[in-house]
Write a structure and sequence with these properties.
With 190 residues, chain A is mainly α. Chain A has a domain at 19-102: NADH-ubiquinone/plastoquinone oxidoreductase chain 6, subunit NuoJ (Four Helix Bundle (Hemerythrin (Met), subunit A), Up-down Bundle), CATH 1.20.120. Chain A is 75% helix and 0% strand. The chains are: A mainly alpha (190), B mainly alpha (327).
Chain lengths: 190, 327
């Protein structure tokens, strides 16, 4: 080992997990909390936004946060699919629909929902209570790592063990496509 | 070598520097190329205008960022960042040679497409946030174009992934090592239509990067300047740089998927320069096409994708699947 190697390994040694021990764990925890915060902030923007397009942006932020959590949990394939399908396709399609729809100002406000006001607060409180009590009662165990979450395994599982579910989902999607075509076709001469 | 924080920081800095330097100097290359094709000098002060990009950068950065009244402030400010940031992120997984890669991911191809889809989101936000009817029309055009051309692109990539059995960009390039005859652009027994796939992918990358003849999102005769009409100073600069970063990524992807990556055609002087040579030749052809072809119409653009490119790429996918079973 020559001198430059020693120097560089000295610098790198400080920054590796061996050098600072618990630092890496703490950093991982902080990163995880940041992902959670991104998801939650996205969600809050999504349901609090006055304008529909802002709600979609919040949804996109929320989806990105979820994708980051997937990546953190060692499922890069799921994370990228989340980005590609939910952010890249679903959010863009919703925004596209908003662009083509009537402007925000012309929109008519419907009557307020039954759940708005005190009922809403009670419902939210009940749901929050249920979630918190569930979370506190459950004993969380760290599951062993089963696989690398790679594409090949997911693909073969989908087409063998879970082929029934896979086929059913594709039928649902087919029906959705046909339905949208029928609706879109209405009022066209040819 | 395990990934340390310093390594990660250095990799990120290099990725940003590479993307930004390329974006800046490709603008110069484009202007010089345009000048050459239109028989005028183009920027030529100081040794082929070598100082033009940094001076342009200073000019753009010192200008005031004007937010038009009535614009959606948050979206207006987020959109240019969203145009540039995903493009830089994609550089993380692109291998320049078998050793020079920041982070070789098993799903590299997927990652690039996932982040590229954020680009059209940026255009959508810019159009909407500007509160300008031309911008909104441009962004509607851009998004319908992106959706239309992403489909044949992904089908073509699926064909190649099916042949090689990997989504890792490094392994994809390595699967074509051993001379020009192993490159995916050359038709093989199991996939005789590969040159057609290459052409489809090339056309789609032109369309995905909003380049002429598919630059309907910024058709200045109808839409002023398209989705970035209201942008000035560095907001506009970020859109511009994002476009060129996307061009570099598109050219790198074509090189890795079809032209053997860093592999040399006849076994001469292997190294990273072959990769760069192929990438810059592709970028040159992008520039060349931009300044020699007229703009298509919206219907021509959408018909080309939905009625020609998608059926052909689907047919190629089925044919390759069948032939892979036979051979």
């Amino acid at each position: 080992m020559n001198t430059t190697d020693q120097i560089s390994s000295g610098i790198l040694g400080i920054l590796t997990t061996d050098g600072l021990g618990g630092f890496a764990d703490e950093a991982a925890g902080i990163i995880f909390l940041m992902m959670l915060a991104t998801t939650l902030i996205g969600g809050i923007i999504a349901f609090n936004a006055r304008q529909l397009i802002h709600a979609v942006q919040g949804l996109a932020v929320c989806f990105i946060g979820v994708a980051a959590i997937y990546y953190y949990l060692n499922s890069p394939f799921l994370a990228m699919m989340q980005m590609l399908i939910y952010v890249g396709a679903v959010c863009i399609t919703i925004s596209f629909a908003i662009l083509l729809a009537a402007p925000e100002e012309d929109k008519k406000q419907g009557p307020p929902s039954v759940l708005s006001g005190p009922f809403g607060i009670i419902t939210a409180g009940m749901i929050a209570f249920a979630m918190v009590s569930l979370a506190l009662k459950t004993e969380f165990t760290i599951m062993p790592k089963v696989n690398m979450g790679d594409m090949k395994l997911i693909g073969s599982k989908l087409l063998t063990t879970y082929s029934m579910v896979f086929e059913l989902v594709s039928i649902v999607l087919l029906i959705a496509i046909i339905g949208s075509l029928v609706i879109g076709r209405k009022g066209r001469s040819k | 070598m395990d990934l340390t924080i310093l390594n990660a920081v250095v990799a990120v800095v290099i990725a940003i520097a590479f993307a930004a330097a390329n974006a800046a100097y490709l603008v110069l290359a484009e202007r010089r190329g345009a000048g050459r094709i239109q028989r005028r000098p183009g920027p030529n002060v100081n040794l082929f205008g070598i100082l033009q990009p940094p001076l342009d950068g200073i000019k753009l950065m010192t200008k005031q960022l004007v937010i038009p009244g009535g614009a959606d402030k948050a979206l207006f400010l987020v959109a240019p960042i969203l145009a540039m940031a995903p493009a830089i992120t994609s550089f993380v997984t692109i291998p320049f040679s078998d050793t020079i890669v920041a982070h070789s991911m098993n799903i590299g191809v997927l990652m690039i497409f996932a982040f590229a889809s954020l680009g059209s989101f940026a255009i959508l936000l810019a159009g909407w946030g500007s509160r300008n009817k031309y911008s909104v029309m441009a962004s509607v055009r851009a998004v319908s174009q992106h959706i239309a051309y992403e489909i044949p692109m992904l089908i073509t990539v699926t064909t190649i992934v099916m042949m090689t059995g990997t989504m890792n960009l490094k392994e994809l390039a390595l699967s074509q090592s051993g001379g020009i005859l192993h490159w995916h652009i050359i038709p093989s027994l199991s996939s005789p239509l590969m040159p057609v796939s290459f052409l489809i992918f090339f056309i789609c990358s032109l369309a995905e990067t909003n380049r002429a003849p598919f630059d309907l999102a910024e058709a200045e005769s109808e839409l002023v300047a398209g989705f970035h009409t209201e942008y000035g100073s560095m907001g506009f600069g970020l859109f511009f740089m994002g476009e060129y970063a996307h061009i570099v990524i598109g050219a790198s992807l074509i090189t890795i998927l079809f032209l053997g990556g860093w592999g040399c055609p006849l076994g001469l002087y292997p190294g990273v320069w072959w990769f760069l040579l192929k990438v810059y030749l592709l970028i040159f052809s992008f520039i060349w096409i931009r300044w020699t072809f007229p703009r298509t119409t919206v219907y021509g653009l959408l018909n080309l994708s939905w009625k020609i490119l998608i059926p052909i790429s689907l047919f190629n996918l089925l044919l390759t699947a069948g032939l892979l079973k036979v051979f």
